[in-house]
Design a protein that fits this description.
Helix content: 40-55%
Largest sheet: 5 strands, mixed, barrel
Oligomer: single chain
Structural class: alpha+beta
Order of helices and strands: EEHEHEEEHHHHHH
Radius of gyration: 21 Å
Shape: globular
Number of strands: 6
Distance between the termini: 29 Å
Number of helices: 8
Length: 273
């Protein structure tokens, strides 16, 4: 059995380190916020899992496990502002990725819960393996012993990996800057949003992982594209995927003057959340 956590389905995925404000006014999610507030403020359990909706808009009316994507991200509660009508304005921050193994629907608590497995160990293992991708070095005859040789080769490989990752991140940063400029020229973003993106981009310039999550969350991508990026465990492969996506989106912007519109924009909500 995996760990059981509260779930909050949304129309788009959440990414680690990304701020997510929410207006909570549906009764079952009011109950979720109250349950989290009942925990000590320093508790590590004051979070819920955000999972993107794969199909439909009223998850509970279909089989939830089939309606939701299987990779999600926790939303850690940072700020809660009670509203006069009994609802809440909350601010959360994306935390840890997880794989959704099963969905539990019950009357108490009234919100969905998910049986999950955490992906931190998988991330660490894949990041370590990913650093060595394509970096096999030829053997070199030296006077050193086998152990010293292996350590030297590992150090060289690690150095080359860091350098190639930095080049990849720099390319994504440049593409994303061009992309933001093109979106602004089409009027698809506000001046305030553009300034905020520029400030965030500068803040994560030296952190390839944070850069990859920023691009995933800020680019006007479809839910499917964003979900693919969330499901990718290694920063290197995520940045490589973003390079392809940004080039595609830049071509669409320049040739067609179009950005993707999420299907949820055309939906008639069946619930207030």
């Amino acid at each position: 059995m995996g760990e059981l956590i509260p779930l909050f389905p949304l129309g788009t995925p959440l990414f680690p380190g990304v701020v997510l404000p929410l207006h909570v006014f549906e009764p079952r999610y009011r109950r979720l916020v109250l349950d989290l507030l009942a925990m000590p403020e320093e508790s590590e359990q004051r979070f819920f899992g955000v999972v993107a909706i794969r199909q439909g808009w009223e998850v509970e009316r279909v089989a939830p496990a089939e309606a939701l994507y299987d990779i999600g991200c926790t939303a850690r509660l940072q700020l809660v502002r009670p509203q006069a009508d009994g609802g809440f304005r909350i601010v959360t921050v994306g935390g840890d990725r997880f794989r959704l193994r099963d969905v539990v629907v019950g009357e108490d608590p009234p919100y969905l819960q998910g049986e999950v497995e955490w992906l931190a160990d998988e991330e660490a293992a894949e990041e370590a393996a990913g650093d060595a991708d394509g970096l096999a070095l030829p053997g070199t005859a030296t006077a050193q012993g086998p152990a010293e040789c292996d350590e030297d080769l590992d150090a060289v490989a690690a150095s080359v990996a860091r350098g190639s990752l930095a080049v990849l991140a720099s390319g994504v940063q440049e593409l994303f800057t061009d992309y933001v400029d093109e979106v602004a020229d089409l009027g698809a973003g506000s001046g305030g949003e553009d300034a905020e993106r520029a400030a965030l981009l500068a803040a994560v310039a030296d952190d390839p992982a944070a850069l990859s999550w920023l691009v995933a969350s800020a680019a006007l991508l479809t839910t499917e594209d964003r979900q693919v990026l969330l499901a990718e465990s290694t920063t290197r492969r995520r940045l490589a995927a973003e390079t392809r996506l940004l080039r595609r989106e830049l071509t669409l912007l320049r040739e067609l003057g179009a950005v993707p519109a999420p299907l949820q924009r055309f939906a008639t909500p069946m619930t207030v959340n």
